[in-house]
Amino acid sequence: MPQNAGFERLSDDQGQPHRSRASWNVWLDLTSPSPSPTPSERPDRHQFERLQEIEPLPFDGDSSTDGAEGSESPGLEDSDCGSEDDLHFLQDADQQPVLSQDGIGITNSHSPPRRDIRTTSIHAQHLLDQLVNGYSPGPFPPHHRPLRSSPGAVLSHLTESERATLFHYRTHVRQGTTVSAYAGFARNYENATGVSILPLSSASSVVKRVVGLVEQKWDMCQNSCMAFVGPYSEATHCTSKDKKGKVCGLPRFDDHGNPAKQYTTIPIRPRVEARFLAGSNPEYLSARGKEAAETYNTEEHVFQDWPDGRRHQQMLADGFFDDPRHEIYMMSLDGAQIVESKKSDAWVIPLSSMNSPISERYRRTETFVASIIPGPRNPVDLDSFLWPIMEELAQAAHGFWIWDMVKDSWFLWRAWLVGVCMDQHAASKVSKLTGTAGYAGCRVCPIKAVYPDDNPALGYFPLSTVGRQLVRRNDDRDDVDPFTLPNRDDTSYAHDLSAARNAHERTKVQKETGVCGLPLIATSPAFSHPYFFPSDMFHLFGLNLPPLLYDVLTSRVDGDPFSFTRQQEEQFGLYVETNSANLPPSFCDVPPRNPAKHAKRYKAHEWHTTTYVFLRPFLFSIGAPVEVVAMVSDLVMGVRIFTAGEGCTFAQLQRGRNHFHQFTKRWESLYVRGDLQLLHRATISQHYLHHIGDTAAQLGSIRVASQARCEREIGYIKRSARSTKHRFQTSSTTCSGQSACGSSIFW
């Protein structure tokens, strides 16, 4: 049964939620975490072994890095999935696969022993074993205390100059100042105190020595196509192919035998060791998870943070957290142009621990930048760059022995990756799903695209099929009821992966399901499709829907029920500009500019304030049609419910979902009207609104998956690299310093 079926039971014919106790019981039964399946119920891991053999289809490795969630950039249908040379995962030679009785996959003739669910991947166990690479935490450490000194002990042995440099460097990183600002303030400090401040490179070394931070360097293609790690560790030339099948072929080493190009990753373990050595003992996930479990099956339950959601409650039921100090991480990933108007693209990969209160979690010191992939081109095989990060996380699932200074004892610390937050451009690369250009372009459900003609490069996703009689490709596409929309799940995902047995079948499966191959991310024991790749509210609510709405309201088409006149557009811009100065800082730190003058250069926070604060009252004040005001009101109310800092109850989740359903229905009725020429208004971004309620119930809140923290890190990196000279080295140094400062909680 689909995860969102409970919403259907909670709605009457008008889409309004019932308030009866019986209907609540139906919803609670459907969303309550179930106990771990018995060995007979749990799918045989070897049923999925054959999935490792799937080779993704070619990927167009270079497009705009500033993509947004649900962005509709044109491209070939069902492309953007991965390269033919993406990681090839072969079965062990001693395995003897036979066809399973259900025909879904391949199973072994012998039954494997039951594995620990905390170290098991339901879709990619063989690949997970490669990442673990025989690692074992070993027996309980024989020595009473750790061999390395605590950060506090190292700090006490620094010289006066090194101590001053350390704190000067901390301020530099936390404030995001430039290299020249670091040097200028250092000179002022030296003149005032007589204590010298070390250069930036030396300061970074001091910080790493105190914290125990280790940087790892990995060889990569000069064109940023792939990394020479994992299965490619012995390669001497880049083997990646572009969409046309052309091999890059650039050498790994220069004429002197040195790596031609490298990128850096920063391991998690030293940061964790420093934190526990410093006396920090976070147990937020455990405490909050237990509190949420007590209210989960009640009407009073509030979805505010990750532990409140079904995913975490299921992990608790499965026994993931047998120690309250275990952690989970959320990965963010985004591409950015480091220096404006220059070829300086880079991919930033932060990790955020969920084991801290939401009031602290999104501070910059709590965000750990695991890697920066230098450009200037976009990666073709992104999985190869993620290999070192996923390798450490795979080993962390088995555990690292960590010294807890508070409890004066060793404990086996474990951690798991629970999700990846990214915009649509990155999502296609990481998830190996077709994305918005595909016939089955939604990550969450199997809805099919509608096309404006028989030879389009891009489909759209309205509820009602437009042009069924006019466009042959739309003939067999049914209308969609948002209240009965089925969701993808791990069972359907495994079936889609195993359905491709040759190149011809891969092409067909890719088109019909949107599944191009098995991503490296699927090795996480906490992987669950489709909510491992949640919609990002930062892009969806801030950069996708508001510009679409504003563009339609300011560009009149015959038959539209309402649009701004030029005078009303200027009046609205002045209204925003004048009144935004009176808003409290809790609404917006920086007032939005006049949209009539600056809409093309608007930032996410400006779109958010303009759309969800000012648009509705302005429409009402100028006498816009009631149905248009009601449409905008549904969007505004839905966004406010799901982004509320205090969280929302089951009833509020349903109310927000109803608002989004009503918005899309009114939007299509008023501004699409079954017209193929207006089909471009029915974007995938609009469709993703139907899945926000389910995502919030699964993740505890859609706020936990926001890309805002990644965008913030990119902003700091840009400030520290205002010159194209050594821009990537400066960015890596800044991020390693920020990660080190975040580790030093004792500061």
Describe this entry's structure for a reader.
- By secondary structure, the protein is an alpha+beta fold.
- Helices cover 39% and strands 9% of the residues.
- The protein has helices at 5-9, 21-31, 125-132, 151-156, 160-175, 179-193, 200-211, 269-277, 284-295, 310-317, 358-361, 382-398, 424-431, 490-498, 503-513, 537-554, 566-579, 595-598, 604-621, 626-643, 650-671, 684-688, 692-699, 708-720, 727-743; strands at residues 97-99, 106-108, 216-219, 262-265, 302-303, 327-337, 345-353, 367-374, 400-404, 409-413, 415-422, 648-649.
- The strands form four sheets. Strands 3-4-8-7-6-11 form a six-stranded mixed sheet, with helices on both faces. A two-stranded antiparallel sheet has the order 1-2. A two-stranded antiparallel ribbon has the order 5-12.
- Helix 5 (160-175) packs across helix 25, helix 7 (200-211) runs parallel beside helix 25 (727-743) and helix 19 (604-621) runs antiparallel to helix 20 (626-643).
- The longest helix has 22 residues, at 650-671.
- The chain is globular, with a radius of gyration of 26 Å.
- Mean pLDDT is 81; it is low at 1-80, 82-111 and 743-747.
- Residues 75-84 have a biased composition (Acidic residues).
User: What summary fits the major beta sheet?
Assistant: 6 strands, mixed
How much of the sequence lies in strands comes to 5-15%
Mean pLDDT: 81
Q: How much helix, percentage-wise, in residues? A: 25-40%
Task: Figure out the total of helices.
Answer: 25
Instruction: Please give the alpha-carbon distance between the first and last residues.
Output: 51 Å
Cα radius of gyration in angstroms: 26 Å
Classify the secondary structure makeup into a structural class.
alpha+beta
Quantity of strands, as a count:
12
Strands ordered across the widest β-sheet:
3-4-8-7-6-11
Overall geometric form: globular
Low-confidence stretches: 1-80, 82-111, 743-747
What oligomeric state best describes the polypeptide chains here?
Answer: single chain
